[in-house]
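Box S2. Input/output pair 1.
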Amino acid sequence: MADEAEPEIRSPNQVEWVRRLSREHDNVKAAMAHLLAAAPGEGAAFVASVRSFWVAQSHSFSEQRAWYARALGAGALPPAVRARLLNGLCTCERKFGRLDAAAAFGREAVEAGRASGDRVVLDVALTGLAGALMDAGDLSAAREVLEEYTANAREIGDSHRLCIAFNGLGEVARRTGDFRAARAYYEQAIEAKGRHVHANVNGVTLANLGGVSLEEGEFATAAGYYRESLAMVAELGDHWLGAMALDGVAAVALEAGEAEKAALLAGAAEALCEAAGDPLESWEQSLRDRYVAKLRAALDAATLEREWARGRTLTLREAAAAALA
């Protein structure tokens, strides 16, 4: 089932397959643990196959990291399996701010990906390395890696990978402060995947478009993008991306004079991020810090505390309903 799900999670059928694996997640983990003990090589391949599901749902990076490290300890592994596991570790180390380790794992993953001869495996490794390089501030190297990935995606004609490629190039542009170029790349990403397709990559891209619009003071446009992103990631049950989108809606609500609603959503976003067990990325954290500072100045302490506490009790679906009302 995990092998069958892996390509489907990158297809327009993502929601269906994420829900299916979510229902079986406890069984999947029990099976992985059993197989790693009984047949370590097969168990490692199993863990590598489950990675796409974990990425689609922003599953706990702490737990992911433990599984990848355990699987890599299974002995000599085929390059394709090794590349996927190393790429998983690269992503996890990025989330925890261990950037030297992330880049090292990313380079190892790319090396194993090239050795595998599998273009899909190599491309996944390239995106991981690009992200690590971006976080380390080496934007020119990140762009170079992403341009190789983009060329591969164009050659194959893979819409999912093109979406990721343009989103990555948008991130590079955004980090240089070129919001106009970033917006153009994000729009290409949405066009590549198809705006109607409900998938985590579209949820991320829509939130990024919301963030660029917010930075440029286009609050109504930002609201539209963030609301669309939130509806999509709530359907996937992605708490981490849900928190990011809720922060965006809260920031826009505050600009519109709806401070109490902003406080409610801020509390919900905080709790969901804690439940996911992972920190926000630096740009999203900066956005949160800025609007929360404004929120504290806009509301009296008692009202802020009451609405924030109420927001923390909401599920992702409840918070999304409140945000989209």
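Box S3. Input/output pair 2.
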Amino acid sequence: MTQEITKDSLSEIFNTSVNDYKNTLEKKFNIEGFPTTAHENWLYWAPDHLHSVLLNPCRKIHETNDISADICIVNGNLVAVSKKLSNLEIVETYPSGDLQRLNLDTSTSSISTLNSIQSKKIIMITVNGNIEDTVKISNISSCDEKDVTTISKVVIKAKKNTSSNFVVEHKNYLQEENAVNTSFHIIAEKEADLSIYHIFKDHKAASFFHSMIYLYENSKCSHLTFVTNSRIVRHDTEVHFYEEGADLKCSGVGILKDNEQFYNHLKINHYSKNCTAAQFFKNILDDKAIAEFSGLVFVQEGAHGVDSTQSNKTLLLSDNARVLSRPQLKIDADDVLCAHGSTIGQLNPEEIFYITSRGLTPKQAKALLVYGFAEEIIINIKDNTLKTKLDNYIKSSLSKINI
């Protein structure tokens, strides 16, 4: 299990281990280097043109009037916290000692390793009890410089027997010459129930996002990603099932047009038996948009009783759109239920004909079918306010698509 971080222990950890920790990470990054299309997880797009940008972190804390959320983070710095929050502890602290003590993995890609090297602070959010209202987080990237990357690292730790919901809006006010490198570590201790929803909307700069999820005995985690009107989003998710009875629901929807790109990579590591995981992702592509889904389910030897599934469905609204789907299973245990599936297609002419025969125009029929395709992902969201917001986002995004 994870160990508590105290102010006294932080000083000792920081003084004795930071240099070694940073050196280890830098050696790891130098060995792996920047990803290229020769790397298995970067076959279809690699950030060749962003090397110098990713190596140039923005250190400015920009002022913002966008403080409507409960927790406001700007360029990796905690700038505002609502006073109404209860059962929640929020602190800024040193990243290196915390990461080493909490054993937070950085292996999703060399870009996530770079995030740990460059992070000057870590935002530590600890759930100490049940939280009825959804906690809203604004993770803002804002900079008037060119060719820089904003860095942020957040840890959400749900303690034993707690229940909480988080909505994170990743707001990107940067231009195309910049980039964002963000990591979220999610820890669900024994019997914890945690839901977290990430929204990526209206991003001009390339966004690199890393989710690391750690699940312990009988914990539950729901993790959803919504992407729309964003130039390039690369999302790497790595999940670790450390103890029995843990349950994960991982889902997402992407609505892309023009030349937008969304690369979604997941690795689900089942180290313990009798755990369940369900992945369900959908993309709607128009124009020359590109989406990739690459999901690997790994069941370690002895992890019997695991039930792990993955499904990726893509709706193509243009002959020029491109989808890359790679569901994968690696199973080293007996007595497991594992399945994966992928479907790629266009709207069904028979369904369109059926709906138009009931009085709708062909365009209305198509819009209804596309909306229903996306709605299946968000219908199970617990927070009604967020559900309505995403519903409106979907309708707004579809109005801009050539149906």
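Caption for Box S3: The helical segments are 7-32, 51-54, 95-102, 110-118, 349-356, 362-378, 384-399. The longest strand covers residues 193-203.
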